[in-house]
Specification:
This protein is of the alpha/beta class. It folds into two domains: 9-130, 3-Layer(aba) Sandwich (Oxidized Rhodanese, domain 1), CATH 3.40.250.10; 139-365, Rossmann fold (3-Layer(aba) Sandwich). It is built from 17 helices and ten strands. A five-stranded parallel β-sheet has the order 5-6-4-9-10, sandwiched between helices. Strand 1, helix 2 and strand 2 (36-38) form a beta-alpha-beta unit. The protein is globular. The protein starts with 8 loop residues before the first helix and ends with a helix.
């Protein structure tokens, strides 16, 4: 006797239950879930043909066309992929868009191959709706926002705090003009899904106040859900404070060492040149706000540092342009924004102090 189909969406996400998505690749690429893989019933082209047939001739004709398009060796290949997934993940489920025809056809073909495998009732649409509800609910949860100047190491604190959400990590972007990573950002839907699952898991395992980094609505090209962002703008604020030398060290670690290594790992010998080009382009994006003279000065410092690094491997040359940008661009912008938030500040301190304080803050409830 096989397992039952399920509507227990919460368990599927809390337990990272393996899912296989029978939608066409184009649907999967637009948005899916971290615990799912795409094993489609139909290709993009096949789905388009069936969809046209459905509109023009109705469901019965569309089903008949689908069976004609996916038959013989092609059908055997797809069923073999499903069987392999079912064998590797006997605890998993399959789903389509609404938990309708594609799910039932896939289930039937598997059953004919000797495997009784359950599907998610309501399909992708119901799973997605559930996660959007989690995001809406999160707007009412107690939050603590971690602020601080550029380079204080807010992400490093977030990574050490169990009850925290790394928004920039989920968005695959460091949230600044220089923040783009080598690998692309997820789609907006994938970002929201991953964020909702992270919040759901934290709410389950660590009820109480959650820490999030102080972000603008946009992280790269991705938008924070409006209800959550509005909640963040009103939440208590802890300020991370570190001396200039520590901040410069942090920027070198994140944007010179780690990001440079990403470029070399992905592009090999061409990585050095691509990294240098990216850094100059990032600086050029803030040319207007810097002003022509300051942009020219910091650009020269950046080019000297990159040339020195390429020639000798030394990183010290980067300190000059980083300090220039922190003092003349990022700090004034931060100070201006902070003036609007001073009434929300509940703590100030360095990394260790913030981590210790937040632990007590959570316990006090």
């Amino acid at each position: 006797m096989g397992r039952s189909n399920t509507r227990d969406y919460r368990r599927l996400f809390l337990e990272d239950v393996p899912l296989f998505d029978t939608r066409a690749p184009v649907e999967f690429q637009q948005g899916a879930f971290p615990n799912s893989v795409n094993l489609p019933l139909m290709s993009d082209e096949e789905r388009a043909q069936v969809g046209t047939c459905y509109k023009e001739q109705g469901q019965e004709a569309a089903i008949e066309l689908g069976h004609r398009l996916v038959c013989g060796e092609l059908k055997e290949q797809r069923v073999a992929g499903w069987k392999a997934f079912a064998a590797a993940h006997p605890e998993g489920f399959l789903y389509c868009f609404r938990g309708g025809l594609r799910s039932r056809v896939t289930q039937q073909w598997l059953r004919e191959a000797g495997i009784d495998y359950p599907y998610v009732e309501g399909g992708y649409k119901a799973l997605r709706r559930y996660l959007l509800e989690v995001l809406e609910e999160a707007a009412a949860w107690p939050l603590l926002i971690l602020g601080g100047r550029t380079g204080t190491g807010k992400t490093k604190v977030i990574e050490r705090v169990a009850a925290a959400v790394d928004l920039e990590g989920l968005a695959n972007h460091r949230g600044s003009s220089f923040g783009r990573r080598v690998s692309p950002q997820p789609t907006q839907i994938d970002f929201e899904n991953a964020l909702a699952i992270r919040l759901l898991k934290l709410r389950e395992s660590m009820p109480g106040t959650l820490m999030l980094e102080d972000e603008s609505r946009l992280i790269g090209s991705l938008s924070l859900p409006l209800s959550l962002f509005d909640r963040m703008k009103a939440a208590p604020l802890a300020l991370l404070e570190e001396p200039m030398e520590v901040r410069i060290d942090t920027v070198i670690e994140d944007y010179v060492v780690d990001l440079g290594e990403e470029y070399r790992r992905v592009y090999g010998e061409a990585g050095e040149v691509r990294y240098a080009t990216y850094m100059q382009e990032s600086l050029d994006r803030i040319r207007k706000r810097l002003g022509g003279a300051r942009h020219q000065e910091v650009s020269a410092l950046l080019q000297q540092a990159l040339q020195r690094q390429q020639a000798t491997g030394e990183l010290e040359g980067h300190r000059a342009w980083i300090e220039f940008l922190l003092k003349n661009y990022y700090d004034p912008m931060y100070d201006y924004q902070l003036q609007k938030k001073l009434d929300r500040v509940v703590f100030r301190g360095d990394r260790e102090a913030v981590i210790d304080w937040f632990s007590d803050y959570r316990q006090r409830g």
